[in-house]
Specification:
The complex is a heterodimer. Chain A is mostly helical. Chain A has 16 helices and two strands. Chain A has a domain of about 210 residues: MetI-like fold (Orthogonal Bundle), CATH 1.10.3720. Helices cover about 70% and strands about 0% of the residues of chain A. In chain A, strands 1-2 form a two-stranded antiparallel sheet. By secondary structure, chain B is an alpha+beta fold. The radius of gyration of chain B is 31 Å and the shape is elongated. Classes of the chains: A mainly alpha, B alpha+beta. The interface between A and B is large, with 104 and 103 residues.
Amino acid sequence: MALVEGIRNLKEEKPKIRKKMSKREKKEARWGLLFLSPWMIGFIAFYLLPMIASLVFSLYDFNPAVPDEATFIGFANWRRALFEDQEVRKSFIRTIHFTAISLPITLGFALFVALLMNSKRVIGKNLYRTLFYMPTMIPVVAVVLIWSGVLNEQTGWINIFIEKLTGIQATGTEGIRWLANPKLVYYAYTMFGLWGIGNAMIIFLAGLQGVPTELYEAAEIDGANWLTKLTKITLPLITPVIFYQLVLGLIYSLQYFLAPFVLNSGTGFPEGKTRFYMVYFYKQSFTFFNMGYGATLAWLMFIVALIVTIILFGTARYWVYYEAEDLQ
Amino acid sequence: MKEKKSFPTSPVSHEVQEGAKTVAITGMTLAVLFLFLIPMVYGIVTALKTDSQFSKVGAPWYPASEDKFSYQGEEYDLYIVPMDGEEREMALIKKGRQSSMLLDPQNVEAGPFEWEGAWRKLERSWTPNPRWANFVKAWKAIDFPILLRNTVMYAGITTIGAVASASLVAYGFARFHIPGKNILFMLMLSTVILPSAVTLIPTYFVFLQLGWVGTWLPLIVPAFFSWGTNVFLMRQFFMTIPRELDEAAMIDGAGPFRIFISIILPQSVPALTAVALFHFFYSWNDFFGPLIYLAGNPDKFPITVGLTAFNNLYSQSTNLIQAASLISAVIPILVFFFSQRVFMQGVTFTGVEK
């Protein structure tokens, strides 16, 4: 959260009056820069220069196998990405569609578990917290494979369970085909994500523990029930945590790649539904080695991520509660 | 406290009510936890199943094998036959459309007898039979020792690099007056939310030119130049160490590097451990980097990429895939159980502390 707050405060930073540095201060600054140097070298070598180079690459038709044949094509890649290549727009819409389903469910579930772990009425919380966290430690590739087994239409336990419980035919080719039905596949992928709630849960929990207990006591005296306490005290006070999770979650979702790649090598099965933006970027860049076009797609993603972040930060003032603001 | 409360109900019934709520909410938590972890149970159970169990109708949910009975040197399948109002296990000796020859394993002396009914409608008799050998099979098929060696090497080396570089940089941010430090710090934080794709292609190209693609170097070297989240966590922790300690050492003539080694680092074991754990789990889980840089070099694959390749080859062997997935999860889970307290503190520290 300090991360978010820091970025938020960046624009408010007032320019300091430049003073002449004393000899001692200069020495200290030199030492400081020496310690910062690994990051500064890394920043220039792995962030700054590659970002600029990526922008330059986007103006070329470029295959890394034959770098000498790279030709300058101006904004042709950009024109293609923005107007001609329908797959760019489609894969982006798919990504947004999936995010709109998975992010609220995942964050909602993480918050729900955090609320349980914060409840004084739950006995043995520490053990449960560890167990709720545990699947986050399993490599995501393994998570995807285990869940795709549970969701298997024939032998998976979820379909067998639904069939036993409701009597509706859920198994078999006529049944619920979680990973093959274009209407269900995003929900199936969302379920994989539930096994990664650990960090979100812990951060929500820390946020919940930061809510002053006096507020609850005061509300209880006024006769508030749990729902009122949740919506009037808890949720407003943890909006900074929700905001933090939302920013990171959205940026992460834009780059969603692993599950479709592991399950169908990026074919987009079923009906292209899982050909997300990052999958398309990977295909263009590392299957077809269209790296000029790939760089364009990457920059486009960066611009979208930037706009999304700016919009989110812009909305923050209307719904995110910061204690410090009250003090002013 | 109790005297102050002025509930209309008697204190006893109030306590009962509270107790009931506690039981109900704990029960709900347990139910959610149970559903949450069911796939884990599925994975274990499925990993232990025999191959034939997947295609057979009426196979039980637990690992089991079909019972057989040998009679006069021949193997016969055992079926569950309803007889005289009870279900009994019978060996099917001769199959017939209208009637079949059965043998009672409990009473072999009586010999086979004729049974009126359609044998196809009968269910097979299964006995629990976990196939632990599946784990051995998966271990060998996936060539786990090589994957493990690669992953441990990769995770180990990058963890050392990440901890060493992050602590140096964090020390710089936490303790020195540097012109423009705030802007540098914000730049560093903003790299955390920068989509990696935007730097990927030129970086890949440079590594290709250097001849590093196909080796671990593109994955290892950047870790030595510190990552935003790690530095952030470390810097927040260093800020909590009282400056008086530094100043005392400075009066004794210690230079900045000496203060870092002998004052800051020994005080920061929890933060160092948290960063080490974060990075260890990160690299254990890393997929995209190895996928791109190690394509076509299976002998260098870490577990994640190896597991994906295995899944593509053995997609029909559900049991082996589950076994291999579980094998890949064992070490991170064990490390987590032994380190969870420090680890979760670290998560909180990056997320919430100011």
